[in-house]
Design a protein that fits this description.
The complex is a heterodimer of chains A (287) and B (290). By secondary structure, chain A is α/β, with parallel strands linked by helices. Chain A has helices at residues 17-33, 45-48, 51-55, 76-90, 103-114, 234-247, 255-259; strands at 4-7, 10-11, 14-15, 37-43, 62-67, 94-98, 118-122, 124-132, 137-149, 154-159, 166-170, 187-191, 205-211, 223-227, 250-253, 280-284. Chain B is of the alpha/beta class and 290 residues long. Classes of the chains: A alpha/beta (287), B alpha/beta (290). Chains A and B meet through helix 4, helix 5, strand 7, strand 9 and strand 10 of A and helix 3, helix 4, strand 7, strand 9 and strand 13 of B. The complex binds flavin-adenine dinucleotide (2 copies).
Chain lengths: 287, 290
């Protein structure tokens, strides 16, 4: 009871990086809170075949499996029902998910159903106390959910004193993923999906879906040559590609350069792009 | 076939053009220094609604916004572009709402409107930046949601087909009505104001606006009912006060800090060859390059 849960995003049997990053963060928070780290995997039998071996090394204590071929690819309602039902039983204190298209579709729906607060796009998560002077109450071990807002001009520290779970989403690349213990052994429970999901949850049909594997890997690149609006044109960006080639780097861009059509969105660095942690970042024409 | 469409639109400070005076010395946002605008993605939402009205003449678009009195500007902006009606949800009790309390209030107003087939919102507002209100409104109403929509492809009978823009691709989904759709900035831009509508609705006002601006012309407002913008309070939509505003918000802001961008380790170099060579040597020595 009152453990820390992470929702796993799975595409073709592979757990998304953003989920693994959250496991690393979740593991350290769970240890600090002296609670267990539990994860939820919902999808087709084929997709769920190798989840345990992917996540246990990150220090997962309990893996909840929900196998049903109708659960892949993701649609909102059945995944919402699974989380809401499970959380009503398990009463987690914290739930983390990726601030991805899936997490930002699922998180708010679940939070509304449970009446618990959700903080979007956190850049940092910490444990701390809070004193409500008016009510004369001290809250121990709350999750401080730290996030930018107002177009990145301010950072807000948000807490969720009374409702559980404390829910937060985090963008890919913000937390660092690190194996906790390659031999870590967690348990697995397979649930009966019919106990969680209703027939009516399948009213939305995916009739077409094209997903392309991203060719650009600026997230993990140790050197990035980034260009901004000042680069001036798509043609001028070739100079950056040439430099990147020589250095073994990837080309990044500011939002202004992307909006101007100089480069594709996949290369955008920043709050609405990709969070990067290179050793060397060369900025050209960026203010 | 005609549809009742509700567009959710928020008035936001223009955080994209933040000047020096946008932040106060204590680190809080100086809203007065930022122009208040129609949330950009809500304009994309508006265009999707107008497009449905083009395809199914006789469909009705109602713009719904929650905010202080001045948010009525958003309603007029919607009317200038082709909406049929505007409702301002305003009450001190709504103040300080997080996304959950916001969506509760909006859903109560939508219930009060009563007839709706398609609710269209923007994906995300540029001040709170959460993208949570659309899905939460859908949950409160107990209807499905389609987020990150780029285009409403077709509506046939009671089924709607929508193209979604995902991180690395697209997805086309089909869903029964009623539904909440949140529209992405990658969707078509909104058509401009229409000159005729601008003339028609220039003086459309809420009761409060008429009172504070001392507008008399009672006759005109009586003879042209479309100039009366609806204004609803907590009581009007039969909302539970405890679930509204600050008291209805599970999330609390503990503190806010101004962001000061600062390079922790920075060094100035000249464009002299010697300087550049030194740097290259250093980067190679530290195995950053090579
Ligand atoms: C909600 C929100 C989210 C955002 N998210 C992101 C994000 O994820 N990523 C992002 O990058 N931005 C983001 N932005 C935008 C960000 O605030 C800036 O507006 C943007 O990054 C500016 O890009 P820039 O520096 O390329 O352009 P500019 O500010 O126009 O700067 C261009 C620079 O190039 C210089 N220059 C011009 N010509 C030359 C020349 N010939 N040689 C050398 N230098 C030259 C100019 O002097 C100037 O310094 C976001 C904004 C908002 C509101
Ligand atoms: C610094 C800061 C951080 C915040 N962080 C959080 C947080 O993490 N979690 C949280 O729950 N709340 C948060 N809030 C509160 C949140 O900004 C407000 O609840 C706000 O009313 C709605 O959220 P949003 O601006 O993020 O809208 P979004 O959810 O991004 O808006 C999506 C769409 O919903 C519609 N919509 C939103 N608001 C209205 C409205 N008032 N009237 C009509 N339509 C509307 C619009 O179509 C809009 O495009 C924060 C506020 C601040 C100032």
């Amino acid at each position: 009871m009152n453990n820390l849960f992470v929702y796993l995003e799975i595409e073709e049997g592979v757990v998304a990086d953003v989920s693994l990053e959250l496991l690393t963060k979740g593991r350290s928070l769970a240890s600090q809170l002296d609670c267990k780290l539990e994860v939820i995997a919902a999808g087709s039998a084929a997709d769920l075949e190798k989840i345990g071996e992917q996540v246990f090394p990150y220090g997962v204590d309990l893996l909840h499996l929900f196998k049903d071929d109708r659960l892949s690819p993701y649609t909102t309602l059945p995944h919402t029902s699974i989380l809401a039902e499970l959380f009503q039983k398990e009463q987690p204190q914290i739930c983390l998910m990726g601030a991805t298209i899936i997490g930002r579709d699922l998180g708010p729906r679940v939070s509304s159903l449970l009446g618990s607060g959700l903080t979007a796009d956190c850049t940092s998560l910490e444990i701390g106390d809070h004193e409500d002077k008016k009510a004369g109450k001290i809250y121990k071990n709350l999750l401080y959910q730290i996030r930018p807002a107002f177009g990145g001009n301010i950072v807000a520290w948000i807490i969720n004193p009374d409702c559980r779970p404390q829910m937060a989403t985090v963008r890919e690349g913000v937390m660092k993923k690190e194996i906790f213990d390659p031999y870590y052994k967690g348990e697995t429970i397979e649930h009966d999906v019919a106990d969680f999901v209703k027939e009516e949850d399948f009213v939305v049909n995916i009739i077409d879906r094209h997903i392309e594997k991203s060719k650009v890997n600026i997230k993990n690149s140790p050197i990035i040559v980034s260009g901004g609006y000042g680069v001036g044109s798509k043609e001028n960006f070739q100079l950056l590609y040439q430099l990147a080639n020589v250095l073994g780097a990837e080309v990044g861009a500011s939002r202004a350069a992307v909006d101007a059509g100089f480069v594709e969105h996949e290369r955008q660095v920043g709050q609405t792009g990709i969070t990067v942690r290179p050793k060397l970042y060369i900025a050209c024409g960026i203010s | 076939m005609t549809f009742n469409i509700i567009v959710l639109a928020k008035q936001v400070p223009d955080t994209r053009n933040v000047g020096k005076d946008a932040m106060k010395a204590d680190g809080t946002v100086n809203r007065a220094a930022l122009p208040a605008i129609f949330n950009p993605e809500d304009l994309n939402a508006m265009e999707q609604a107008l497009d449905i009205k083009d395809r199914f003449p006789g469909s009705k678009i109602t713009v719904l916004t929650m905010g202080p009195g001045r948010a009525a500007e958003i309603l007029r902006e919607g009317l200038f572009r082709g909406a049929d009606d505007g409702i301002l949800l305003t009450d001190r009790a709504f103040a300080g709402a997080d996304t959950l309390a916001t969506s509760y209030a909006l859903s109560m107003a939508i219930r009060k409107i009563g007839k709706f087939d398609i609710i269209i919102s923007g994906r995300q507002a540029i001040d709170g930046d959460t993208a949570q209100v659309g899905p939460q409104v859908a949950e409160k109403l107990g209807i499905p949601q389609i987020t990150y929509a780029e285009n409403i492809e077709k509506i046939k009978g009671r089924k709607i087909t929508v193209k979604r823009r995902l991180e690395n691709g697209v997805e086309v989904v089909e869903c029964p009505l009623p539904v909440v759709i949140t529209v992405n900035g990658t969707a078509r831009a909104c058509r401009p104001r229409n000159a005729k509508l601008l003339l028609k609705y220039k003086h459309a006002k809420t009761v409060t606006e008429r009172q504070t601006e001392n507008i008399d012309y009672i006759d005109i407002y009586n003879s042209r009912p479309y100039l009366n913008l609806t204004e609803w309070s907590v009581e009007d939509v039969e909302a539970d006060k405890v679930q509204c505003g600050l008291s209805g918000s599970p999330t609390k802001v503990k503190k806010i800090e101004n962001v000061v961008f600062q390079a922790k380790e920075s060094r100035q170099l000249t464009d002299d060859d010697v300087d550049i060579e030194e740097l290259m040597k250093e980067l190679i020595d530290s195995h950053t390059i090579g």
